[in-house]
Amino acid sequence: MSRISLAVPVRRSNVSVEMAIASRKSRRAFRKEALGMTDLALLVWAARRVPSAGAIYPLELYLVIGAVEGIKPGVYHVLDDSSMELHSEGDLRTELAIACLEQMFIADAALSIVITAEYERTTRRYGERGIRYVYMEAGHVSQNIYLECEALGLATVAIGAFRDAEVANVLDLPKTHRPIYLMPVGVRD
Ligand SMILES: Cc1cc2nc3c(=O)[nH]c(=O)nc-3n(C[C@H](O)[C@H](O)[C@H](O)COP(=O)(O)O)c2cc1C
User: Fold this and answer.
1) Is residue 45 part of a domain?
2) Can you give the CATH number for the domain in which 74 is found?
3) Structural domains in the chain (count)
4) Is any ligand 1 atom within 6 A of the Cβ of residue 159?
5) CA of 161 to the centre of ligand 1 (A)
């Protein structure tokens, strides 16, 4: 699989962190418009710039992309702060929305960021306690995505209600990558 670069030349918006916190809210109305590559690159970067217990980084991010300029619809696996690779082809937004207890607004979002975890990375070192660390880290990722969406004028909402096995099946996730949280992102309606 080939690596797709998401390099971002300038990481600066005119929105202060206080403004982003003040305006943040869950937004579930998405316009059926494509996102630009710069938006995608900034979202991935923000999602990955998070603390991790013991610097172990148990989270793996997948993108269910339906409408991003220059990117064919499909599931992508994020490799690092600025690159991803194609995991499987095809627009799976409707199947994903159905797996999320029929929250169909998810199908209107340009993409969804699916936060998965390989718990064993963290529990190997911290035992049972590692499980709570993984959830805390997913929260950090989610909040960064919320705030980046505010900075970019986009819409997002945290999704915790879904059928785990069905989401894993839709994305064809490796068995060790378990979905724990989802963030659909799109142009605000
Ligand atoms: C752990 C968690 C799970 C959530 N799951 C869903 C969900 O499945 N669907 C949804 O529409 N909103 C979901 N939300 C968003 C909440 O409904 C929302 O944050 C809450 O109503 C407060 O509104 P605000 O985010 O605009 O401040 C979830 C939020 C959290 C923190």
Assistant:
1) yes
2) 3.40.109.10
3) 1
4) yes
5) 9
How many other CB atoms are found less than 10 A from the CB of residue 35? 22
Query: Interhelix angle for 119-126 vs 129-152, to 10°?
Result: 130
Q: How is the chain split among helix, strand and coil, in percent rounded to 5? A: 40, 25, 35
Q: Average pLDDT of the chain? A: 96
The dihedral sign for the CA sequence 13, 149, 78, 86:
negative
Range of the domain at 87: 28-188
pLDDT reading at 69 higher than 70: yes
Quick check: is 14 in a domain?
no
The residue to mutate among 26, 112, 163, 166, having the most atoms of ligand 1 within 8 angstroms of its beta carbon, is 26
Fill in the amino acid letter for 25. K
Q: Which among 105, 146, 157 is the best mutation to test ligand 1's pocket, defined by most ligand atoms within 8 Å of the CB?
A: 157
> pLDDT tens digit string along 127-170?
999 999 999 999 999 999 999 999 999 999 999 999 999 999 99
- State whether the beta carbon of 23 lies less than 6 angstroms from ligand 1: no
